[in-house]
Each structure stands twice: as C-alpha cells, then as structure tokens.
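Onboarding guide, step 5: your first structure request.
Type a short instruction followed by the sequence, for example:

Predict the 3D structure of this protein.
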Amino acid sequence: MGKTRGFYYSIDNINKVEDFGTYALAMYYVKQINASKGKKLLEATLSEAAYRFENELPSGGLDGLEDFEAHYVRSDLQEVIFFIENDLIPALNNETQNLLVKYGGRANFVDLYYTNPDYLIALGVDDDEFYMADPSSIAAFLLDLKDVFEYSLSVNKPCEVLVY
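The system replies with structure tokens like these:
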C-alpha cells in the first residue's frame, strides 16, 4: 500500500488535493517535455519558503512550517498556463499507456527520477507513493493547477501549497 502523503493547494474557496506520487510523476513527465518550463511549473507549486530554501536564498523571515504561500511570479505563471494548455495536455492526450508502465514500473520510475533529478530533488519521491498514472489523471491534475494559476492571476495573489 502506498504512502498517504498528499499535495494540497488552495486559494479562496478553491481547495484541491492530489496524491503526492501523482504530483511527482506529473512533474517528472513535465520535465521530459521541457525542463526549463517544467522548472517554472514546479516552482509555482512550491511555497515561497521552500523555493528560497531550494535556491539557497535568504529566508526573508519565512518559515517552511507556517508559511504556505506559493512562489508567485506573474510572468512565470502566465508562461506555465500556456505550457499546460499548448504542450502538456496535447502530449498527454497522445500517450497510449499508463505512465508508470511507460517508465518501467514503480521502482524503475524512482530510479529514473533520481538518475538526473536536477530541480526535482526538492520533491523526494519513492516507489511506496500512491500513483494515479494514467495520462488522463495527470492531465486532469494539470488542468486543475492551470485553473488555480489563472484564478491566482485574476485576484493577484498566490495560492497556498502544502505537502503533508
């Protein structure tokens, strides 16, 4: 049985939860499509405190245990929205198999993940996570994120993110 960790994101009355393994699998897939845009997408899902820690920046008084506002750069969010719409969803619609099958199963996926983790090292995933690996589930998750990012831009404030 997989871990019960989750990825939670929220803004105003929009609250979403995704299995952490599904989130990590999505971020790995995204990195395979376009690493530089994928990094911006991942950063948009990190808290500002986590972003600063991962990039060895001053904390600015933020505490990763209490401060959950996402890293927020308007131009990056706009780019990420277009990336999701124009690149990721079409790519996922063309996938013909479960992504864990594509990557050789859970254990092999974790090995691939850590072969060249680069910015994905921030997530720390293993094969005991729970994964929704069919392309339509990943697409639904990314479309939910896109909606949250669009709303975030419209109200000009970051969402909150938390891994628990």
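Each response can be followed by summary notes, for example: The first strand starts at residue 6 and ends at 11.
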